Amino acid sequence: MTATNGQTTLSIRDLHVSVEDAEILRGVTLDIPAGEVHALMGPNGSGKSTLANALMGHPAYDVTAGQVHFKGQDVLELETDERARLGMFLAFQYPAEIPGVRVASFLRLALNARRETEISVMAFRRLLMEKMQMLRMDPKFASRYLNEGFSGGEKKRNEILQLAVLEPELAILDETDSGLDIDALRIVADGVNRLRGSDLGVLVITHYQRLLNYIEPDRVHVLIDGRVVESGGKELAERLEAEGYERYGAAAASEDA
Amino acid sequence: MTSTTRDLITDLSTSHGEPGWLRERRAAAWHVYETTPAPTWSDEEWRRTDTSWVDWDGAAPAANGADPARLALPMEVSSASVLLRQRGSMVEVLYTSPEARDADVTVVSLAAAAGSDGSMVADRLGTDLAPPSAGKLQAMNAALWSGGAFVRVPEGAKLTAPIVIVIDAADQPIFPRTLVSTGAGSSADVLEWWRSSQAATPGFANGCVELFVGAGSKLSYTHVQAWGSHTGSFLTQYASVARDAELATTNVTLGGRFHKGAIAATLTGPGANVRLNGMAYLDGEQFADHHTLQDHRTTDAASDLLYVNVLDGSARSVYAGTIMVQPHAQRSNAYQQNRNLMLQRGPRADSIPRLEIMADDVRCTHGSTTSTIDPMHLYYLGSRGLGLDQARSLIVDGTFEPVLDRIPDATVRSAVRTAVRAKLHGTAAA
Ligand SMILES: Nc1ncnc2c1ncn2[C@@H]1O[C@H](COP(=O)(O)OP(=O)(O)O)[C@@H](O)[C@H]1O
Ligand SMILES: [Mg+2]
């Protein structure tokens, strides 16, 4: 299936995903047009991270039915690294710790992987320092091992740093707000807002409305039990904050409600 | 037949103009060699290490001046303070920096030093650290070594660039021997690089390194074994570390079909601080065995060991490390860590830690991990656009990085990194 209009960055149709033979996503349909910010909300265990990882090609998640197109391409045919080079990016809820691999050297490789010509070491250095300054990160960060020994907040900031350096066309932020204090949250949201432009599509996954005070969504979708049960404008997020997820049924009882 | 070998050793020593004491030591070492049985499976140290391929009866001194083809040097000549190269048995000093000259550093062939700098060499060569009685291999080297390197860093001298020793072997057996001595308060980096000009010819190497680290001095000694892929190789590398001295050794094992390293540091004075680092990248049918010893013979000293093996193909590694704390060596700190990363199902890594703690007020830990590449790491790197090969080689680099990080000199570190990457990417190691 091709995108319904030239503007649609991401198009998800009736997506079914299983983990270890348990069906987690049970027919998700969602469009994110270029340049829009969409929020995906839902209680713990409703399948938000499953959707994010299925979109990125996580090996443990089996897509059993449905389609995903990004920029008109069938991404389910692509390997994870090919999806990334096509412009997709996932800021992980739980980023992997990779000992011995320094943030700067890894990020330069990653940037070069999506460029026609290699960026010079000097130019990369400048770019990295600029983005780190924007996120108010200590320059020492660049030579630390990737996520090893990082605090929860440092990991989240490091994910956003990668987003800022790699400049994808679709960013999925999986619970980037959890583990961040209010100041850090504001910095991260500022960072995202600055990247927000005519091209970048964003899917903000959260189960709190808090982050959406700083990153204002164009659309809000509610995921319950592996299905999008309701979509609306930003007022939907406010209503969910006030009422919780109970109205969608017992199965969806949120542990933070 | 063996008596003719002894005569040959004596004749060669005479023709090289070696002093009488050295000729006598060679003859005595040969006697030890002949009367010491070859290692067998039943010796604890050799239980996992097959030496049946060694032609013990055929051991003989190398023919004079075997002259391998000229190989490129592992670094720019001018980034060294002294560059000594041994080709076959022939030793030449290719470069001495003004800094090294001003500091009055001695870097010469061991054979020459035995003649001219006699007393220091006579006092130390094969006496305390690696005497022939240490074993059949040490005796073999003591009898047969040729060329060799002698490094003396005088009291208080501080070198900023590394002393580089390059040993080029061809199809002849080779018996390298290095003696390093650092004077009080001095500091130096030494890089010794073993490699073959004929990568595919079977070779035999048995080297011996003795490091005397003087009071309050700092020595970093890095050893790269990059023989051709058919060479069988033995290395004995023993160090003694005096009061307040710092030693970092890094053993990098890349080449050879078989490699056995016996690495020991004896801490003799309070305040001694030792780091023993090792990294091996093995593939195909390669086998490497490292036995290490952290020998605390004094109070208030510290040793910290990190050995990392990355194995591909059907390679095999053995790591066996002993921490020994003598009864009076109170307040010793000793750490030992062995990590093995398997790149596929074929390889095997054995890890055998041993603690012999005879003092009660000590801090000792050891740990060992053997793992495969975590698919979640590949996924994470993939999600940033790195393909499988790129992600794997980044993870391998990352596995070695903590060891590279412990090589203090940037020139040495980058030469080692280049050699490891060259092997990882299938281009011949320098
Ligand atoms: N890798 C996995 N292995 C097994 N079960 C999983 C895995 N990932 C998710 N699940 C299960 O799928 C369901 C949805 O999880 P997830 O997508 O993480 O929810 P959310 O992100 O909305 O909290 C949960 O019941 C969870 O236990
Ligand atoms: Mg989640």
Key phrases:
heterodimer; A: 257 residues; alpha/beta; Rossmann fold; 6-stranded mixed β-sheet; 4-stranded antiparallel β-sheet; 10 strands; disordered N terminus; B: 430 residues; 10-stranded mixed β-sheet; 9-stranded mixed β-sheet; 9 helices; 19 strands; globular; binds adenosine-5'-diphosphate; binds magnesium ion
Write structural notes for this entry:
- The complex is a heterodimer of chains A (257) and B (430).
- Chain A has helices at 48-56, 80-86, 103-113, 121-134, 152-166, 182-195, 234-243, and strands spanning 8-19, 22-33, 37-41, 61-70, 73-74, 88-91, 170-174, 201-206, 219-224, 227-232.
- By secondary structure, chain A is an alpha/beta fold.
- In chain A, β1 (8-19) and β2 (22-33) form a beta hairpin.
- Chain B has one domain (65-424).
- In chain B, α2 packs antiparallel against α6 (136-144) and α7 crosses α8 (388-404).
- In chain B, the strands form 2 sheets. Chain B has a 10-stranded mixed β-sheet with strand order 2-1-5-7-9-11-13-15-17-19. A 9-stranded mixed β-sheet of chain B has the order 3-4-6-8-10-12-14-16-18.
- Chain B starts with a helix and ends in a 6-residue tail after the last helix.
- Chain B has 9 helices and 19 strands.
- The A-B interface holds A 56-59, 79-81, 83-85, 89-90, 92, 95-96, 98-102, 106-107, 109-110, 113-114, 145-146, 162, 166 and B 374-377, 379-388, 390-391, 394-395, 397-402.
- The complex binds adenosine-5'-diphosphate and magnesium ion.
- Adenosine-5'-diphosphate is lined by residues 19-20, 24, 42, 44-50, 60 of chain A.
Secondary structure: elements and pairs:
The complex is a heterodimer of chains A (257) and B (430).
Chain A: E1 8-19, E2 22-33, E3 37-41, H1 48-56, E4 61-70, E5 73-74, H2 80-86, E6 88-91, H3 103-113, H4 121-134, H5 152-166, E7 170-174, H6 182-195, E8 201-206, E9 219-224, E10 227-232, H7 234-243
Parallel strand pairs in A: 3-8, 3-9, 6-7, 7-8
Antiparallel strand pairs in A: 1-2, 1-4, 4-5, 9-10
Helix pairs in contact in A: 5-6
Chain B: H1 2-15, H2 20-35, E1 82-87, E2 90-96, H3 98-102, E3 106-109, H4 110-116, H5 118-124, H6 136-144, E4 149-153, E5 163-169, E6 177-182, E7 187-196, E8 203-213, E9 218-226, E10 231-241, E11 246-253, E12 258-267, E13 273-282, E14 287-296, E15 302-311, E16 316-325, E17 332-342, E18 348-357, E19 362-372, H7 375-382, H8 388-404, H9 410-424
Parallel strand pairs in B: 1-5, 4-6, 5-7, 6-8, 7-9, 8-10, 9-11, 10-12, 11-13, 12-14, 13-15, 14-16, 15-17, 16-18, 17-19
Antiparallel strand pairs in B: 1-2, 3-4
The complex binds adenosine-5'-diphosphate (ADP) and magnesium ion.
